[in-house]
Amino acid sequence: MRRVLAGLAATAALCAAPMAHAAHYVLNLTGDADGMVTDSFSFGGVFFETGYLELSGFTPFVLEDGDTFEAFVTITGSNPPPFPTFIVPLKDQMFFGLNFADILGGAQPETSEANGLFSFDGGPDVGAGCGNCTSLIYGLNGTPFGFTTLVASGMFLMSEPYQINTISISYQVNNDAVGAVPEPDAWALMILGFGAAGALLRRSRRAGLIPAC
Questions:
Q1: Per-residue confidence at 173, pLDDT binned at 50, 70, 90?
Q2: Mind giving me the DSSP string for 78-124?
Q3: What are the domain boundaries of the chain?
């Protein structure tokens, strides 16, 4: 009888305990393309150009393993419709990223993985991901690319919680590495470029050239 009662008590305690579940974030974000920060760097004898634009419209939060999101992004700026507002320079190899980070342009946790989809200006979904960061990255070769609205969705896998204080969009392009678009697990170089642009933005803020939000 004691065993039965103990079993019932244990079952009741288990049922009463809160069950952990992944969070789902719905984000409505905006950015002004005229505030784009550009930079360049060389790595392995290859010259890269980058651009970085911080987005607004959210409250800082903590990502945990299995969390999902939907992001609706609108870019404004001086480029009038029907032309795209956010434009990636046309090069042989081109990358676009949506980045979740604790510090703008800062290093991201290498134990994380991001997988998801992008839709640009209501177009078809395209796959995006990163095998060592909390960015969704999309790559293409020598194709004109720009947009005004972006719908993104995805999931994060990570070994420990990660504070999100900034969300941004960015690009990295070059003319010296023509070939197939890398797989999502080979994006380490891409993150170097995003970090370089973010570092430039932080230096500009410290110098008083760009006001902090």
A1: very high
A2: SS-TTS-SEEEPP-SEEEEEEEEESSTT----TT-EEEEEEEETT--
A3: 21-206
